[in-house]
TrEMBL record:
It comes from Ponticaulis profundi. Belongs to the short-chain dehydrogenases/reductases (SDR) family. PROSITE patterns: ADH_SHORT. This is SDR family NAD(P)-dependent oxidoreductase. The keyword Oxidoreductase applies. It comes from the Bacteria. Keywords: Oxidoreductase. SUPFAM superfamilies: NAD(P)-binding Rossmann-fold domains. InterPro entries: NAD(P)-bd_dom_sf, Sc_DH/Rdtase_CS, SDR_fam.
Amino acid sequence: MKLDSNITAVITGGASGLGEATARALAAKGVKVGIFDLNEERGEAVAKELGGAFAKVNVTSEEDVDAGFAKIREALGQERILVNCAGTGNAIKTASRDKNSGEIKHFPLDAFNMIIQINLVGTFRCIAKSAAGMMSLDPIDGERGAIVNTASVAAEDGQIGQAAYSASKGGVVGMTLPIARDLSKEFIRVNTILPGIFNTPLLAAAPENVKAALGAQVPNPARLGNPPEYASLALQMIENGYFNGEDVRLDGAIRMAPR
């Protein structure tokens, strides 16, 4: 897909981190950028800077997602690109024993379901609604649209306490090929990135020595990933018309240890 001012993109979680970097990379190519995020102040600021549009969207809400797509499409036109970066995580063992009292607890199912709803169902909700919109467009050079999802290396190397997070990201990986096949006759491509340890707002408050220790676990280069590196791969997945149905790790060759 040729990236220029004739193209509109929607980036979920686009107000910070991987999503913001992708929004900036797309805008640098002339693409009209629409941002979904819960952080209204930051989202409005980034969208204004990029000459795009912002919608406050909780991806677990059908109403929010519908209203968000409607707002962006009215402002910028029907999107041909969707990049799903909205997501979160938690760290809770499946079952555990309190070190002091010996009390046995299990993973609260509400907390498990919340992660699934945001990371997996929220991603699918945005894919389905965006793809339906893309199908209304005429193909350009044999393409109607391109979708990029964000999973995690935890989909394959889940650590202690990551049952919910790994399940949600594993689901994103698992649905990539079927969705690409579902949309193949409509000329819409679907790919997923599995980032490793990236220097995103999730780590912003961590001390520098902690960041350095995390980066040292990466074989090569021995550092944290930078959001523009994610954005670079996302753009390659969008621009390369033969890139479809793939799940690609972007992790400096790390394989996560149990903890």
